What does this fold into?
Amino acid sequence: MAIEQRKNERFIDVGRVDAPELCIFPGVLEDISICGSKIRFPANFDVELDMDINLAISPNASNFSKVLHLIAHPKWIKNHENETLIGFKFLRSPGTHLLNSYIEKLALANAEFNEEDQFLCSVM
It folds into this structure.
């Protein structure tokens, strides 16, 4: 089993991602961190790894209703039969401060969930 070594914690999350420079269809956010994300698009296409992409991420969380406007750089691409999975690194963007707020909310929710899970396990 491989252990992922990352500087920043990634949070599994779902949301809509618009990247018209890449695909006419919206993508689906799969995970996110302060430094990057993994996004799945419902089409098979090629992406140049040396270009920066404007992303508009609409998180699905009920406690966060703002759209994150981020500039991202593709780091890796996996094409499958009818979809493309892309790993992005976030660059300094107009939405960086909102991204920080969103990651803080995800971290807090994750900590509360882990605390509750530990309590339930100790009771059983």
